[in-house]
Amino acid sequence: MAEVSLSKVTKEFGAVSVIKGIDLQIADGEFCVFVGPSGCGKSTLLRMVAGLEEISSGALRIGGRDMTQVGPSDRGVAMVFQSYALYPHMTVAENIGFGLRMTGHDKAEIAKRTSAAAKMLQLDHLLDRKPGQLSGGQRQRVAIGRAIVRNPDVFLFDEPLSNLDAALRVQMRGEISRLHQDLGATMIYVTHDQVEAMTMADKIVVLSAGHIEQVGSPLELYHRPRNLFVAGFIGSPKMNFLTVEARPAPGGAEVTLPGGAVVTLAGQIAVAGQMTLGLRPEHASATGVGDAVLEGTVKLAEHLGSETLFFVALSDGSEIAVKADGLASERPGDRMRVGVPARACHLFDAAGQALINGDLTR
Amino acid sequence: MFPTPIQKASPAARIGYQVLLPVALMIWLIPLIGVAVTSLRPASDLAAGNYFGIPSGLAFENYAAVFRDSPIGWYILNSFKVTVPTVIGAVALSCLTGFALAVYGFRANLWVFFAFVAGNFIPFQILMVPVRDMTLRAGMYDTTLGLVLFHIAFQTGFCTLFMRNFIKGLPFALIESARVEGVSEWRIFRHIVLPLMRPAIAALSVLVFTFVWNDYFWATVLVQGQHAMPVTAGLYSLNGQWVAAWHLVSAGSIVAALPPVLMFFLMQRHFIAGLTLGATKG
Amino acid sequence: MSDTARSAGFWKRNQLKIAPWAFLAPGAIMFLLYVLIPIVQSVWISFHDWDGLGDKVWIGLGNYVELLDDDTFYVALKNNLIWLALYLLAIPMGLATALFLNQTVWGIRLYKSLFFFPFVISQVVVGLMFTWFYAPDFGLFSQLIKWLTGTEIAVLADERFVTLGIIVAGLWPQTAYCMILYLTGLNNLNPEQIEAARMDNARGWRLLWHVILPQLAPATFIAMVVTVIGALRSFDLVSIMTAGGPYGSSQVLSYFMYEQALSEYGYRMGYGAAIAVVLFLIMMVFITLFIVRMIAQERNR
Predict the structure, then answer these.
(1) What residues does the ABC transmembrane type-1 domain cover (chain B) (predicted)?
(2) Were both Cys, which of B281, C38, C57, C204 would link to C49 (CB 3.0–4.6 Å)?
């Protein structure tokens, strides 16, 4: 059993507070992704779990044991670094077996575990090469192999795919997911790429400026973002935000859109005022189908083949992105009627907290 | 590339450049060429006033005479006895100090580092009296060991600057990765960092060899007698004996200059890498 | 048994705190013993009258007061300034040589090595070479001067020219050093920036001044450091070529100190130490400037 739990964990570098009190439970065998923009503290948090950064205050428990003061080598964790950190003067086999050799395992055991890991990662034929002779994907696998041989309770990945090209990234994403299924170990994975987070995670932790914005499964974060930050961060292309007037009304919240159209959202709000309406581009309709219509002019059309992305300027000067069919034929300068389905809309108060999350499953 | 490659210039300019190169080199090296020619000039030429003309013969016996009639062979041996242990000692110590200053973020780190750097720039004269006194009292005055210990200590300053910057240039994740794997700090140094420092060790070895071989000041301050005198100081004292025997002075000079010159030509790449440390960005 | 177990645990827990000091200790102790402590001792000795053997007699600022009345001290100080000013010529000369040699023609590597050659040779040998070069009657240089002007000049015996003559000898290896720094710098220029500048119609001097030199700034900084330090350290050449003469006219502080402390004129350790302290203070001005800049760079990393 290796669940990881953090309680009130903080980190200060001198006077600068980088991690501002994190409470988090990661279950045994879970694939947990820390995601956030650069500088949000996600890598620092991972390194604190690894023991590479001291924990300023709070407690870290792994598998029920308090690890706050324990050195990195005794935490039962293995880490895959962004740069892979392969030892350039050692062969693949030596790289994989190095940690075992240094901690006094006997030769036969090292050889057995190395070859098992190599087989799992299809590195068998590369064992005698030096890292300099390997491709990016192969180096990545060696780095993972080095983690596997140690049989850790928890795997830590620090942006492991960011040095790979796009195609390889997709492939390695699959391989790491498969590895997680095979090993069943707890894994913590740091990335700034929300696509990686969505595709791989059991649980996503969205971080910003040293604190947790929201924790949940990928679909929970997509459908029920708790605030503007998460709503804007998860999903691609980004969710549209429109400044609107909203007031409580019988049967829901009455929202006046730019241009004057009114849409009523199911759900309760307490007071009236200026608020933010969130609508994902894929839920807006380029053909005007919906509970209300926004009138605007197409500024830019991106034809991606399978779909077309329109950027439409509205009467009040704001802009909205609309995802449409790949065959949609509107061109810049054309008028467009954008349909707004009420059940896909999110409403956020002036402080950015979600008041109403649209629910497409309803 | 700057200046514009000569290949793009007119054919005349190209030929002009090719002609100018050897001419410029000759002018640049005139003192050296003069001494080299004189070292092979028979003594009779000098006596006859033939200082610049074609030598009447190649007098390799000048070199034989230098070795036969003077203790220069012994001086050269002394130079090796000073230089080689210094290279080993200074490089070994600076591998350790450089590692400490590059890898650990302890509070006094930068202060210690800049103490090493600043010490490296100070005038020797401020050290002369106390170091000579200390060497005397330790019974190491007039021995190669006395010179070796001082040179090791002093060169450690420069070497630490070099090693620390070199190790800083290595990916820190290598060290962290080993720490997560439970490798002790000494073994990280021994098995991960040290093997990667080979180019730095080579560069420093040739540099320190040259610096120490060419040292003259300390050779005169810490040594008096022939038995421990390195070749720089030895050459100077021979110069006093060979008044006007310029063919011998020249031959002796060439002999004394030869080991670092050989070192330079054999290890040129490392030598220049060491000397130009920091001359480029990152 | 339990003790060793506990100490192993202690080591494991505190490894990261102890390790840096353990790695640092051997080198730092040597450096402390032979470099840092002697600086303090020299300052202490400079307040004493001492022949190196007997007891030290405290005379306070006596040595410094005497120094202020010593004509040779002013000659040495003046010569040090001349050294400093003229030695800096090595930087533009080194840059010019580097620009001249920064081509890719057949054999250029060998040319670069041979141009660098003077730096590898001991200053003792350089001094002897230039002594021969300047020697009256048969020195190449004096012959050249005689042929050009009809009069003969014994450079090293002439109070007007002796310091200049020694500095020229020093410039020879120093220019080579600066050249190699600039060659390395030129080698690492950003080619796209140069191409962009050429597209913007910058060429020749303006390209050098506005685009190349700023990129060579790290090389220039190091060249400055080594040249200033080299100029103030100038001992070997003075000792070999003139021993400060004629009549002390080529004296510099470094040699003056040595002569006072350890020569046939008697062992005046205290007085020598005082001269060394003055030289040290002059150098500290430059060292501090360098270190301040290095700290700034270190912060920017």
Answers:
(1) 76-267
(2) C57
Q: Tell which of A13, A87, A140, A155 to mutate to test the B interface (max B CBs under 10 Å).
A: A87
What integer is the mean pLDDT of B1-8?
81
The complex's ipTM? 0.90
Rg (CA), chain A: 24
CA distance linking residue A70 with residue A55, whole number of Å:
11
pLDDT at C282: 94
Of B115, B239, B256, Cβ closest to residue C122 = B256
pLDDT band for position C1 (cuts 50, 70, 90) = very low
Question: What would the mean pLDDT of C59-67 be, rounded to a whole number?
Answer: 92
A71 touches chain C (CB under 8 A): yes
List all chains that touch chain B, counting a touch as 3 or more CB pairs closer than 8 Å: A, C
Does pTM top 0.80 for this prediction? yes
Non-local CB neighbours of A304 within 8 Å, separated by 6+ positions: A326
In chain B, count H helices and then E strands.
16, 0
Number of other residues whose CB lies within 10 A of the CB of residue A169: 19
* Full set of structural domains in chain A with CATH: 4-225 (3.40.50.300), 237-356 (2.40.50.140)
For chains A and C, what is the number of CB pairs under 8 angstroms?
6
Q: Which residue has the tokens 């004292």?
A: B237
Q: Which residue of chain B has the CA closest to C234? A: B123
pLDDT in tens, C121-176: 999 999 999 988 888 877 788 888 888 888 888 888 888 899 999 999 999 999 99
For residue C3, the model assigns a pLDDT of 39
Q: What are the pLDDT digits (tens) for B172-189?
A: 999 999 988 888 899 999
**According to the model, what pLDDT value does residue B78 have?**
95
Residue A178: both structure tokens together: 């498969």
What is the C-alpha separation between A206 and A118, in angstroms, rounded?
Answer: 34
Cβ neighbours for C224, distance < 8 A, ≥ 6 positions apart: C88, C91
Q: Where are the beta strands (DSSP E) in chain A?
A: 4-13, 16-26, 31-35, 57-62, 65-66, 77-80, 154-158, 186-191, 203-208, 211-216, 240-249, 252-256, 262-265, 273-279, 292-303, 307-314, 319-325, 335-340, 346-348, 354-356
Parse chain C into domains and list their residue ranges: 2-45, 69-300
Report how far Cα B50 is from the mean position of its chain's Cα atoms.
Answer: 35
Rounded to the nearest angstrom, the minimum Cα separation between A69 and chain C is 9
Pairing between strand A203-208 and A186-191? Answer: unpaired
Give mean pLDDT, residues A202-222.
Answer: 94
Separation CA A103–CA A105 (nearest Å): 6
- pLDDT tens string A128-165: 999 999 988 899 999 999 999 988 999 999 999 988 88
Let me know: does A233 contact A194? Beta carbons within 8 Å.
yes
Q: For residue C4, what pLDDT band results from cuts at 50, 70 and 90?
A: very low
Give CATH for domain C69-300.
1.10.3720.10
Measured at the alpha carbon of residue C207, what is the angle toward residues C204 and C209, in degrees to the nearest 5? 105
Q: What is the CA radius of gyration of chain C?
A: 25
Q: Which helix (H) or strand (E) holds A143?
A: helix A136-148
Partner A contacted by B177 (CB < 8 A): yes
Q: Where in chain B is the domain with CATH 1.10.3720.10?
A: 71-275
CATH class of B71-275: mainly alpha
